[in-house]
Write a structure and sequence with these properties.
Elements: H1 3-9, E1 16-27, E2 30-42, E3 47-51, H2 58-66, E4 74-82, E5 85-86, H3 92-98, E6 103-106, H4 110-113, H5 120-131, H6 136-149, H7 168-180, E7 186-190, H8 198-215, E8 218-223, H9 226-232, E9 235-240, E10 243-249, H10 250-256, H11 260-267, E11 311-323, E12 330-344, E13 349-353, H12 360-368, E14 375-380, E15 383-384, H13 390-396, E16 400-403, H14 417-427, H15 433-446, H16 463-475, E17 481-485, H17 493-510, E18 513-518, H18 521-527, E19 530-535, E20 538-544, H19 545-550, H20 555-562, E21 587-588, E22 599-603, E23 606-609
Helix pairs in contact: 5-6, 5-7, 6-7, 7-8, 14-15, 14-16, 15-16, 16-17
């Protein structure tokens, strides 16, 4: 029995108890409830997960507990009991003493939670000076101890650094250090790993579990990732449309979930290793959230042609110069993409996988010439893209289109959806305004939307719908190749399943080729014909999907696969095999000489760097 289980079993008094929580927002002069009658408790040293998709009310629940919602436009009812006090009845000055002291919170995006104008050390020290009676020198010493505790290397030397000097995983560790500064009784973690690479996510989960065992802190973990829930939660609360639909021990929820929505959530989770019996990409099962029933997933018919590739990338290299100061001399280079080569055939999906900083997105942008590579060749339809002039480049972009990670950022908020989809069609002079309207209606139907939605603006759509609109816009020019750069990474599991199914269906009907850039290994296994693993700007392993996943050869490939959370609570006690190091720096001295990569053949078309 684990330490946390002993503590839970020996304690009858919960750290926090939420009773009939109802949160409403003022909309058009009326109070609209968005969270209704939610009740749960968290025991000492226990982890309770609140799981659900965007709009289910899970984040509003956490903000209600912290009383961080705007008071003039929100109303919180019910009871939130902490240490014998109802937090909802405390005056604001008393609530300020609770926040960060008794209850701390880690938010989803650490960069927006940290003040870019203050050093890391100052921001953590501030939490200590606000809640503890200590000197500035003592606060600094405690801050360095906390940074060491969350595994920040060279903690003392990084005390005076600013947030932008830290990677995403490091920034999230800083947020954890800040949250733990006052030794809170409850830590609320709101989607703390959603935007992180799989290996960094694994490190953050391990860190939270380790700190929980050492400090005895209770954790309320909010997420939509069922793999993470299985790995970290003792009990689980499932939320759907503002209501709590199921609560129980995590193992019971996974193995004997009764509510249709719970079963729907679980069936939409891609499981690494589930593709061994399939040769081709597999559609995700379509789940009815009202009944929990799903259809049988079917293999996508093979459309891969054996003729000449539609896209040939050879020896592609992109480096970024680093200067010391504004007018300083060149002091080094970031070797973002180094001697990358691959082919992409008609109707094929080639996935580029790796952590942030490995060069996969830079590769996609260099192919599109959104950034200019130093050397190499990118051949589309027999023409080298890197040698084309401006007019020819416009013509080439009809053949190669890109879907970006954040659909909201890539859509103009002042343009209607119809205008956004029609714009590339009209800019390239492919038809009249009337023909463009017909194309827009056809594209919206193709991506599962209706033509009447063309008059709406991007903010009127959900994240999944906005991504469909971006796909419709990319399809308007009838491209042969689509570069999908982390295009489903930020989506909920069921929305992700819908968008990927859409991409697979369009690939089959239009014989599209996808360069699928992702760090989600379970999704990559599901959608790929071939896989290329990138590390420090180089491809270290490439081959058919079954070969790479069934017989990984490079240490980095094995590390990526070992870090994937397994959606099975029975395996949560297994030791994670992933290394604790972050991705090494791709920065090299000016005089650095690149050693050409050599590859050995493992099996037909399966190559690994030596």
């Amino acid at each position: 029995m684990s330490t946390s289980q002993v503590r839970i079993a020996g304690s009858a008094e919960p750290v926090i108890s939420v009773e009939n929580l109802t949160t409403s927002f003022l909309v058009d002069g009326e109070w609209k409830p968005v969270v209704r009658n939610v009740s749960f408790s968290v025991q000492p040293a226990e982890t309770v997960a609140i799981v659900g998709e965007s709009g289910s009310g899970k984040s509003v629940t956490s903000l209600s507990i912290m009383r961080l919602l705007q008071s003039d436009s929100s109303r919180i009812e019910g009871k939130i009991m902490l240490g014998g006090r109802n937090l909802l009845s405390l005056p604001e000055h008393e609530m300020r003493k609770v926040r960060g002291n008794d209850v701390s919170m880690i938010f989803q995006e650490p960069m927006t939670s940290l003040n870019p104008l203050f050093t890391i050390g100052d921001q953590i020290s501030e939490a200590l000076l606000c809640h503890k009676d200590m000197s500035a020198a003592d606060a600094k010493a405690e801050t360095i101890r906390l940074l060491e505790k969350v595994r920040i290397p060279s903690a003392a030397s990084r005390f005076d650094e600013y947030p932008h000097r830290f990677s995403g995983g490091m920034r999230q560790r800083v947020m954890i250090a800040m949250a733990l500064a006052s030794k809170p009784r409850l830590l609320i973690a709101d989607e703390p790993t959603t935007a992180l690479d799989v290996t960094i996510q694994g490190q953050i989960l391990d860190l939270i579990k380790m700190l929980q065992e050492e400090e005895g802190t209770s954790v309320l973990f909010i997420t939509h990732d069922m793999g993470v829930v299985a790995e970290i939660a003792d009990r689980t609360v499932v939320m759907y449309r503002g209501e709590q639909v199921e609560t129980g021990a995590t193992a019971d929820i996974f193995h004997r979930g009764r509510h249709p929505y719970t079963r729907a959530l679980l069936s939409a989770v891609p499981v690494l290793g589930s593709m061994q019996a399939y040769e081709r990409p597999l559609r995700f099962p379509v789940v009815n959230t009202a009944t929990g029933e799903s259809d049988t997933p079917v293999e996508v018919p093979d459309t891969v042609a054996t003729e000449k590739p539609v896209l040939q990338v050879k020896n592609l290299t992109k480096r970024f110069d680093i200067h010391s100061g504004l007018f300083g001399k060149l002091k080094g280079r970031v070797h973002a993409v180094e001697d990358v080569s691959f082919d992409l055939f008609a109707g094929e999906t080639l996935s580029l996988v790796g952590e942030s900083g490995c060069g996969k997105s830079t590769t996609g942008r260099a192919i599109m010439r959104l950034i200019e590579p130093q050397s190499g060749s990118v051949v589309v339809d027999g023409r080298d893209v890197l040698s084309l002039g401006k007019r020819d480049m416009r013509e080439m972009r009809k053949s190669v289109q890109m879907i970006f990670q954040d659909p909201f950022a890539s859509l103009n908020p002042r343009m209607t959806v119809g205008q956004a989809v029609a714009e590339p069609y009209l800019e390239h002079g492919m038809g009249t305004a009337k023909e463009a309207r017909e194309i827009v209606a056809d594209m919206l139907r193709k991506v599962g939307l209706t033509p009447d939605m063309a008059s709406r603006y991007p903010h009127e759509f959900s994240g999944g719908q906005r991504q469909r609109i971006c796909i419709a816009r990319a399809l308007a020019l009838q491209p042969k190749v689509i570069v999908a750069d982390e295009s489903v990474s930020a989506l909920d599991v069921s929305i992700k399943a819908q968008v990927i199914n859409l991409m697979l269906d369009l690939q089959q009907s239009l014989n599209l080729s996808f360069l699928f850039i992702s760090h989600d290994m379970a999704v990559v296994e599901r959608v790929s014909h071939r896989v290329a693993v990138m590390y420090l700007g180089e491809i270290v392993e490439i081959g058919p999907r079954a070969a790479v996943f069934g017989n990984p050869q490079h240490d980095y490939t094995k590390k990526l696969m070992a870090a994937v959370p397994v959606p099975d609570p029975d395996r949560r006690r297994e030791k994670r095999a992933a290394a604790g190091d972050e991705l090494k720096s791709p920065i090299r001295p000016v005089d650095y000489l690149v050693t050409p990569r050599e590859y050995r053949t493992v099996s037909p078309n399966h190559l690994v760097a030596v």
